[in-house]
Write a structure and sequence with these properties.
Blueprint: H1 21-28, H2 41-73, H3 85-90, E1 94-96, H4 103-120, E2 123-126, E3 138-139, E4 144-145, H5 148-164, H6 171-174, H7 178-182, E5 187-190, H8 191-199, H9 203-208, H10 213-228, E6 238-240, E7 248-251, H11 268-274, E8 281-284, H12 285-289, E9 300-302, E10 310-311, E11 314-315, H13 327-336, H14 343-357, E12 362-366, H15 377-391, E13 399-405, H16 416-422, E14 427-430, H17 437-449, H18 451-455, H19 465-472, H20 480-490, E15 496-497, H21 503-513
Parallel strand pairs: 1-2, 1-9, 2-5, 6-9, 7-8, 12-13, 12-15, 13-14
Antiparallel strand pairs: 3-4, 10-11
Helix pairs in contact: 1-2, 4-13, 5-10, 14-17, 14-20, 20-21
Organism: Punica granatum
Keywords: Membrane, Transmembrane, Transmembrane helix
Protein name: O-fucosyltransferase 30 isoform X1
Amino acid sequence: MNSAPRKIAEEEGEEESMNSLIELSGRAQRPPWPRRKPPSRSLLLFPSLLLLTLLFFLCYYSFVSKSALTVLRDPLPPPGLRCNPEILSSGERYLWYAPHSGFSNQLSELRNAALMAGILNRTLVVPPVLDHHAVALGSCPKFRVMGPTQIRAAVWDHTVELLRSGRYVSMADIVDISSLVSSSLIQTIDFRVFASLFCGLNIEKACSDKSGETFLFNRLKQCGYFLSGVDGNVDNCLYTIEEDCRSTVWIYQREDEDGKLDVFQPDEQLKKKKNISYIRRRRDVYKTLGPGTEADSAAVLAFGSLFTSPYKGSQLLIDITGAPREPKIQSLIDEIVFLPFVPEIVSAGKEFAQKTINTQYLCAQLRLLDGQFKNHWKSTFLGLKQTIGSLRQKVPLPIHIFVMTDLPKSNWTGNYLGELAQDFSSYKLHFLKEEDELVARTAKELSVAGHSLRIGKIPRGFDRVDKLRKSCSPKELSDVLLYIEEIVCSCASLGFVGTAGSTIAESIELMRKYDSCSLNSHLGRKLEV
């Protein structure tokens, strides 16, 4: 539940139009040339028929095009998509939310969503892994964020695009949440199964049948707009939460704080500059959204962002650290602090450490190009230089270093990475690349495993899981390299140097704290530096 806020970026599309009827009709009305024999009546009739035919098709095309644009852009779904009766009759109650930003932020939100689902006794809809910053929240401390309805719609649109392009990968395909489900701390359902039920659509057909995908995907998008809350709430079907980090800090079992002002508020200067009037209050999530409330009666409870991080003595959205009166929720809180990667990723990282590096090594995670990090090269290299200097007094040369960086090798000239790469007698650098056989093999293994569809809840009578697995499994997996690199860094027995402020570095530190990688003895014990 600890991640740094991210900036927001939005894009809008454009429309095109065309019209050539005036010119065409003008030519048809011109008189015949002088001294030219008047055409026969039948010949005069031909241009008229041609013109009428053209007018018919142009009008029809204009009408169809306009209708298609209306279908794509109209935020209100058709009445048939409002709420599938199966959702209401099943008695199941779901929690859906809108992840965003980079993978580490999405992982943090998954932990928070699991906690909310446990407290509210709802089945968690497990989302896909979104492309890096395909959807961004904004800056909570500066009160510049995308609203809950907007971010839900943006996440749904991107999810549909992932399905359409064959790149859909569930968070539960990457992060191992099986222990949470097997211990009955929470129940989960794969997004593809949930969307099939809620929207009443054969999503697997859209994934496989190219001839029908446009219609089905458009219907799926419209269902998503409804589920995002653009048309408001629907009794017994949908309750959308419009509170976000500008107005609310969710708490639990702190009766003396419920309804009180939070310690962090927008200052007067910001209020005047941005013309805002937000007041942040602390609200008990169970009392606000639990039994006896309007939200509790809805089959689907839809949050916006569930991103939180500490700021000025408070949390930006969720401040739940314990549940002393409920052992089950306390166990859930303890379990979600660290969620490991699935076995295929852990095994790949260990394999690279044991077979390729095959000795003690240091990991250097150097984030140098993205966002704020491109302005802090000096401090990032300084930390690495100091650690290596200390290691030179303790271990024989050459020192083995696994380098995890976003800086291409072509840009190493003239900086500390270039110096390390050139000093062959003192250092041996190790890297993983997208095209490496280990990375490609792991991606295939993850696609075949399909963990999310195996551990998630399957409603009674739903018999299309095998079709979903076959048709909507990823044809390609992105970011597998990142996950394996994190495991390799967690296994570094000579220590870890991470980039200050990087959520990736925070994730690796958490892995190392929980000893997620137990290497064979021949790689040596971790060395304190």
